[in-house]
């Protein structure tokens, strides 16, 4: 960690009225970039409860109390829609999900310093406090990370903590942009940032929730039931605004799909299902969903994931292992985070098909890893070890 630097930031201002927010937005909208963070609670609800929005510009830091009475946050959309102002976040996904839910659209353009840090070689999914420390030498106080942000009034310590999440982010952003320019990686970072403004990536599809349950079965009928009841749970949880696990636990869904209860009495015997639930409106709806899924034609049933009863090709594990070694070698050589270059699923697909349009052979990833991976798969090079280090050995010379 470098020697701690000293910084002077504007005094944070708490915003609790729509008029004050509109005034602040009018000033911030001329900035080249603003840093943004949120504090929220989601332990008790399906949709995150926005409690605070922090924004820092060149000359002001504002803490917007989203729970203040009669407070309309709509003026924020003027800033978020302004294309000339870059909205800078760290680990932006949850913040963007909140704004998409509240406003129906995403801020743009967006820059995520966590993604940029991965491009710049600071490791996989580096935390904000670690990144601030690496770039400035400053230790961020994280003692309020798990505080209840819905309780009012907020303490002075909470407000100081919240402000630090956007003040030092300005320093981090400028340092990362400068580094990316020096290393000619601005294009790499920009390519990765584009996905952040794709709303479809942040929208939950109830019809795909069953895939996250990772059922260990090749029984397509069971999977068909699981798909339908997982979608039912998701929609019910969204409507009631309660966490999906509080509505019905994953283990209960898996048992229902396996045992196929037809009556309230049978449903009540499932672990985690109360008699009140089974005999009530939701129990009746769930049983109707089970019955409908049981009657689906075979052609409409989902296929199991690869490796769970499928007849599809499986990637050669020895080749996948070699690709993982090559990935680690190339990422160390190029000082970039491996998870940003290729996931395990990407490596599996590459070992099977070497798709020229796949992510590994597209854009900057081809330069960093794809060309070498293709040469390995085609037998034009191999891996060796010399003096304790991996080496690439050309075999087509």
From TrEMBL:
UniProt-recorded Gene Ontology molecular function terms: 3'-5' exonuclease activity; nucleic acid binding; nucleotide binding; ribonuclease D activity
Swiss-Prot/TrEMBL keywords: Cytoplasm, Exonuclease, Hydrolase, Nuclease, tRNA processing
Domain HRDC: 219-300
Top EC class, one word: hydrolase
GO biological process: tRNA 3'-end processing
GO cellular component: cytoplasm
Pfam families to which the protein is assigned, alphabetical: DNA_pol_A_exo1, HRDC
Catalytic activity: Exonucleolytic cleavage that removes extra residues from the 3'-terminus of tRNA to produce 5'-mononucleotides
Protein location: Cytoplasm
UniProt EC number: 3.1.13.5
Cofactor: a divalent metal cation
Family: Belongs to the RNase D family.
Role according to the record: Exonuclease involved in the 3' processing of various precursor tRNAs. Initiates hydrolysis at the 3'-terminus of an RNA molecule and releases 5'-mononucleotides.
UniProt name for this protein: Ribonuclease D
Origin organism lineage: Bacteria, Pseudomonadati, Pseudomonadota, Alphaproteobacteria, Acetobacterales
């Amino acid at each position: 960690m470098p020697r701690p630097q000293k910084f002077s930031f504007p005094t944070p201002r708490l915003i609790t009225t729509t008029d004050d927010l509109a005034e602040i937005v009018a000033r911030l909208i001329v900035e080249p970039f603003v840093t943004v963070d949120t504090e929220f609670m989601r332990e008790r609800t399906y949709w995150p409860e926005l409690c605070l929005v922090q924004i820092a510009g060149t000359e002001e830091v504002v803490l917007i109390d989203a729970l203040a009475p009669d407070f309309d946050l709509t003026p924020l959309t003027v800033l978020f829609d302004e294309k000339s102002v870059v909205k800078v976040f760290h680990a932006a996904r949850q913040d963007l999900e909140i704004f998409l839910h509240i406003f129906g659209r995403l801020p743009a353009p967006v820059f995520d310093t966590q993604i940029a840090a991965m491009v710049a070689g600071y490791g996989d999914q580096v935390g904000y406090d670690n990144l601030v420390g690496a770039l400035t030498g400053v230790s961020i106080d994280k003692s309020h990370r798990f505080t209840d942000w819905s309780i009012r009034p907020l303490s002075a310590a909470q407000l100081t903590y919240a402000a630090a999440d956007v003040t030092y982010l300005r320093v981090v952003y400028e340092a990362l942009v400068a580094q990316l320019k020096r290393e000619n990686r601005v294009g790499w970072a920009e390519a990765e940032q584009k996905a952040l403004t794709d709303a479809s990536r942040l929208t939950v599809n109830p019809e795909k929730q069953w895939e996250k349950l990772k059922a260990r079965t090749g029984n397509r009928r069971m999977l068909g039931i699981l798909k339908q009841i997982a979608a039912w749970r998701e929609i019910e949880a969204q409507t009631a605004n309660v966490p999906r696990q509080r509505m019905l636990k994953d283990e209960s869904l898996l048992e229902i799909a396996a045992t196929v209860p037809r009556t309230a009495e049978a449903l009540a015997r499932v672990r985690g299902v109360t008699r009140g639930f089974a005999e009530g409106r939701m129990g009746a709806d769930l049983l109707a969903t089970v019955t409908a899924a049981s009657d689906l034609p075979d052609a409409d049933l989902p296929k199991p994931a690869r490796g769970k009863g499928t007849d599809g090709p499986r990637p050669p594990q020895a080749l996948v292992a070699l690709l993982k070694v090559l990935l680690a070698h190339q990422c160390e050589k190029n000082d970039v985070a491996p998870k940003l270059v290729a996931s395990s699923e990407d490596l599996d697909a590459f070992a099977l098909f070497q798709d020229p349009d796949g992510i590994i052979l597209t854009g900057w990833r081809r330069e960093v890893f794809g060309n070498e991976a293709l040469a390995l798969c085609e037998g034009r090079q191999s891996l060796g070890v010399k003096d304790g280090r991996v080496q690439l050995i050309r075999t087509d010379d």
